[in-house]
Design a protein that fits this description.
- Its EC number is 2.6.1.9.
- By secondary structure, the protein is α/β, with parallel strands linked by helices.
- A seven-stranded mixed β-sheet has the order 2-8-7-6-5-3-4, sandwiched between helices. The protein has a five-stranded mixed β-sheet with strand order 1-11-12-10-9.
- Helix 4 links the parallel strand 3 and strand 4.
- The protein binds 4'-deoxy-4'-aminopyridoxal-5'-phosphate (PMP).
- 4'-deoxy-4'-aminopyridoxal-5'-phosphate (PMP) binds next to helix 3.
């Protein structure tokens, strides 16, 4: 037979996720850590990988890694689940808590993957847009959950791409106002140094997402985890792919997590550079940076798409959100090394001065 039946209807009009990765000298578009894992730790990773059987399936639940994460967070193994990057766990969440007849509450502008996952799983999306300064419209969120139809919500803290963290008292009020499962996406929490972890015992409807991709320099390896109540974790285990975290990724993540203290100076340096970059952006005429608790800074300016192209010609890749709903005129720059940040500011200065 020639031809092929159409794919599932929910795919119509859906664009695949595109990180818009292009060759560049300075990658400031994907919120990665500018510093790779250092040589000493790499040597330890290699030793661990040498011991890893390649002919055997990995531990399906990555229990050794789970135990390390659980212990560090004062939890039991059954309160932690490891995934192939946070992305996989976000999809698992939509599979387990979404679906036809179910509703997801989103607070845009935020990480676009949430909404895509809802659409893929035929989950209805309810939205409470952020205010003009990107703060959460807290009363509107609480009013929306009061309707009683929300099955799960995601609060991103710090939010991507806007940068600010969610106020802790608001998240507590939300957890108490609804029995919906509330995920707090803490992919960038190491840069805000704030976590909802203390509320896990008291709030069964809280689940926290973390990743190894940012503070721990492992975006290339694909490991993330969630922490939640055993009942919630059990449901997620039902939908996950059995061997999604391969043996090599488990080995790398174990070594890195056991040595996580060694990443602390790098994190502190990024936090310092974030302040320096934000201040420098603020000095540029017509450029308005938004305060950030993460490892990136969102800024708004005229002709942002032309500025993006100008930077790219200079080898600097930032993320262009200038035509994204709610983010008009905005670019997002990952905090890079001091040299990269200087080059970014110089490139932007050159652009805005050229337009004066
Ligand atoms: N949540 C947020 C807010 C993110 O920005 C990202 C990465 N872009 C993720 C989750 C997923 O990260 P990863 O799959 O690399 O763990």
């Amino acid at each position: 037979m020639s031809g092929v039946r159409a794919a599932a209807p929910q795919l119509a009009g859906l664009e695949p996720y595109d990180p818009k990765y292009l060759p560049a000298e300075a990658f400031l578009s994907a919120n990665e850590n500018p510093t790779d894992v250092d040589a000493a730790l790499r040597a330890e990773i290699v030793r661990e990988i040498r011991k890893t059987a390649l002919n055997r399936y990995p531990d399906p639940l990555a229990n050794d890694l789970r135990d390390l994460i659980a212990e560090a967070n004062g939890l039991d193994r059954d309160q932690v689940l490891v995934g192939n990057g946070g992305d996989e766990l976000l999809f698992d969440l939509a599979l387990a808590w979404g679906g036809p007849g179910r509703t997801f509450l989103n607070l845009p502008p935020t990480f676009s993957v949430y909404e895509a996952n809802a659409r893929l799983t035929n989950t209805a999306v309810a939205e409470v847009p952020r205010r003009a300064d990107f703060s959460i419209d807290e009363e509107a969120v609480l009013a929306r959950v009061a309707a009683g139809d929300i099955d799960f919500a995601i609060v991103t803290s710090p939010n991507n791409p806007t940068g600010e963290r969610a106020p802790e008292d608001f998240v507590v009020r939300l957890l108490e106002a609804t029995d919906a499962l509330v995920m707090v996406d803490e992919a960038y929490f190491e840069f805000s140094r704030r976590t909802m972890r203390p509320y896990l015992e008291s709030h069964e409807n809280l689940i926290i997402l973390r990743t190894f991709s940012k503070a721990f320099s492992l975006a290339g390896v694909r490991v993330g985890y969630v922490m939640g109540s055993p009942g919630v974790i059990r449901e997620l285990v039902k939908v996950r792919q059995p061997y999604s975290v391969d043996a090599l990724s488990q080995a790398v993540a174990r070594v890195v997590f056991a040595n996580r203290a060694s990443f602390e100076p790098g994190i502190a340096a990024i936090i310092e550079e974030r302040a320096r970059l934000t201040d420098a952006l603020r000095t540029l005429p017509g450029v308005t940076p938004f305060p950030s608790d993460a490892n990136y800074v969102l800024f708004r300016m005229d002709a942002a798409d032309e500025a993006w192209a100008h930077l790219y010609e200079r080898g600097i890749l930032v993320r262009d959100f200038s035509h994204a709903p709610g983010l008009e005129g905005c670019l997002r720059a990952t905090v890079g090394t001091p040299d990269q940040n200087d080059a970014l500011v110089a490139g932007l200065r050159d652009f805005v001065m050229g337009r004066c």
